[in-house]
């Protein structure tokens, strides 16, 4: 892979304090001590995110050397913003504290791995999942079982040890594995989802069209995967 897109901005303590002041928090949670604890925890999430993306780069390099094939087209990684973290805790009616983040949010550190073919999605994720120093906490396979709206991707939550002076801290990282076609589709669907000013009839029409597009893209992917397998001497797959 030549590109890793970093989608997160560096955490800034004064921004954070300004944002927290706008919230009317009962009992004065998020005092200076809590802010420091929060910034420390975000650094742990960042470390976990780098560890996983380094593992993925190493796998991609190995494939390139051994098979002259890049399974990973590119990666994107991001830390959830303070606003999104607070918004999600509020939405779920969870307490606003660092412990609550650690106990309830598994997507503070996130990596999106965009692969060339569907076979690559499964080989890269299987090799990563079998590494002995990390744990698989949860798998959601929306490729085998697409969502109603047509969304497809493989989501895996890993726990990875981040070593601090106090020892190993197992930290969750959400990895979304998908193909270029799945990513292309998900970007447009995401844009539509936040387009709330469209009339309902239009939204429904677009959602239906997107569902058709998801099916078409899936067929195209199977055909292209087969050509790719044929070129590389691997067995063919049937329609998914
Ligand atoms: P939440 O994180 O609270 O949504 O629950 P979850 O972690 O159980 O959700 P899930 O694993 O199903 O999805 C997590 C992420 O996948 C979302 O934050 C999105 O980035 C992506 N995602 C899931 N469903 C869709 C979808 O229908 N469309 C698009 N564009 N992205 C989706
Ligand atoms: Mg999530």
From TrEMBL:
One of its GO terms (biological process) is guanosine tetraphosphate metabolic process. Residues 77-200 form the RelA/SpoT domain. Pfam families: RelA_SpoT. SUPFAM superfamilies: Nucleotidyltransferase (SSF81301). It comes from the Bacteria. This is RelA/SpoT domain protein. It comes from Bifidobacterium breve DSM 20213 = JCM 1192.
């Amino acid at each position: 892979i030549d590109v890793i897109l970093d989608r997160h901005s560096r955490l800034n303590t004064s921004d954070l304090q300004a944002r927290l002041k706008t919230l009317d928090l009962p009992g004065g949670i998020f005092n200076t001590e809590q802010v420091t604890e929060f910034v420390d925890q975000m650094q742990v999430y960042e470390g976990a995110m780098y560890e996983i993306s380094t593992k993925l780069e190493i796998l991609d390099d190995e494939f390139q050397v051994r098979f002259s094939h890049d399974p990973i087209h590119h990666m994107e990684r991001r830390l959830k913003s303070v606003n999104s973290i607070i918004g999600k805790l509020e939405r779920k009616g969870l307490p606003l504290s660092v412990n609550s983040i650690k106990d309830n949010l598994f997507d503070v550190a996130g990596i999106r791995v965009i692969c060339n073919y569907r076979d690559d999605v499964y080989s890269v994720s299987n090799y990563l999942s079998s590494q002995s120093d990390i744990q698989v906490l949860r798998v959601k396979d929306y490729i085998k079982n697409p969502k109603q709206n047509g969304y497809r991707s493989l989501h895996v939550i890993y726990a990875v040890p981040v070593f601090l002076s106090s020892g190993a801290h197992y930290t969750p990282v959400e990895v979304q594995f998908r193909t270029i076609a799945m990513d292309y589709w998900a970007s447009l669907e995401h844009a539509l989802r936040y387009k709330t000013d469209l009339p309902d009839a239009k939204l429904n029409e677009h959602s239906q069209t997107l569902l058709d597009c998801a099916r078409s893209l899936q067929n195209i992917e199977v055909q292209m995967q087969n050509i790719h397998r044929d070129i590389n001497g691997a067995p063919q797959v049937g329609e998914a």
